Prior knowledge:
It contains nine helices and no strands. By secondary structure, it is mainly α. The relative contact order is 0.17.
Amino acid sequence: MKHLKCLDNFINSKSNYYNEEQMQLISISMLKERGVEIDDIAFLSYYAQCKYLPNLTLDECKKAVLEILKKRETFHAILFAINVDICAEKHMFDEPLNAIILSDVGLFSIDETLALSICGDYGSIGKTNFGNLDINKPAKVYQLQNNKEHCHCFLDDIISAIAANSAIKIAQLHANNSINE
């Protein structure tokens, strides 16, 4: 039984491997169906980096987000997070797990652990940026966390991790550019 309309006509590859463009498109579709636009994540990335880069643009952040969505680890985390959240909405887990996920219990931390796993490419600064977004819950993260219609226990953290990664990607690009000047 499919839970996301965007995957109604989806056909698995025989190998279960997808190229970067396929992963990016599937991720964008799934995020959109759960109420998250690329611009929402780009804004979070901008929020994390604008105080360090005064000339930063949302377009630059959007490009970085789109690059992060090509990563296999990010793709798998999005697939897992959204499916777990939907399963919790449909009460498919035994209690007390279902209630813990639905209420996004602060001490659960499996959701943050999944999100941190995709910050690994960017070292401790990626984890620090993720922590900042997770604690402060700006913009879309706050909206997802406080949504009463849907469960976003895992998705809000994945969005923060993607934004943190794209912010670091931007910082590294700017650092490289300043070295070359």
